[in-house]
Amino acid sequence: MPTPCRPTILPLPPRLSACAIVLLSAYALLLPAPSQAADLAAPDVDTAGLAALSDPDTERNPYRGDARAIAIGREAFNQTCAVCHGADADAHRSPAPDLRRIGQSCRRVAEPALRLRCQTDADYYFRSTVEKGKIKLGIEHMPPWKGILSTELIWAIRSFVESAPRTSHP
Ligand code: HEC
């Protein structure tokens, strides 16, 4: 009979309960070894087809729907992100979340200005998360990609992920 996960087992601060530690440790085991994560390298892709950014700080994906950016983004994704987020962004049985759902609900917003705002928020979240990585309670769930991936490449990856089909699994 497994011991139930009780937050009160250890005298820890409430936000760092025993339950959280057990869950975080189990989660960390699913990720690739830190040595793998430390060997971060830019993907070997030809980015010549990506248009120069008129505003490098833009919070909105400038390549949305651009077929060439999607193809470059797909290649880059499969080299750098697929190890955790699944080949072709299909997160099936992957240790990291399904990125295809980020901003998907914006499509249901009828009012054009609001839909644009919604997409821009999702774009900015995507870009800034990729740049900063995900570090929680000192555990690196995702490394920061700033300085490794150009902003152009991050937007190309975003364009690919958004266009990646949802696959159904048995
Ligand atoms: C070493 C594994 C790993 C690699 C490689 C990796 N990620 Fe992640 N990523 C994660 C994990 C794990 C999370 C979830 C972290 C959390 O929220 O605790 C995550 C979260 C994210 C999020 C936020 C998802 C959400 O639902 O909020 C984005 C965006 C993201 N990753 C993009 C990327 C992109 C783009 C790449 C490739 C350039 C990449 N990741 C490579 C492990 C990885």
UniProtKB/TrEMBL annotation:
<feature type="signal peptide">
    <location>
        <begin position="1"/>
        <end position="37"/>
    </location>
</feature>
<dbReference type="GO" id="GO:0009055">
    <property type="term" value="F:electron transfer activity"/>
</dbReference>
<dbReference type="InterPro" id="IPR036909">
    <property type="entry name" value="Cyt_c-like_dom_sf"/>
</dbReference>
<dbReference type="Pfam" id="PF13442">
    <property type="entry name" value="Cytochrome_CBB3"/>
</dbReference>
<protein>
    <submittedName>
        <fullName>C-type cytochrome</fullName>
    </submittedName>
</protein>
<dbReference type="GO" id="GO:0020037">
    <property type="term" value="F:heme binding"/>
</dbReference>
<keyword id="KW-0732">Signal</keyword>
<dbReference type="InterPro" id="IPR009056">
    <property type="entry name" value="Cyt_c-like_dom"/>
</dbReference>
<feature type="domain" description="Cytochrome c">
    <location>
        <begin position="68"/>
        <end position="165"/>
    </location>
</feature>
<dbReference type="GO" id="GO:0046872">
    <property type="term" value="F:metal ion binding"/>
</dbReference>
<keyword id="KW-0349">Heme</keyword>
<keyword id="KW-0479">Metal-binding</keyword>
<keyword id="KW-0408">Iron</keyword>
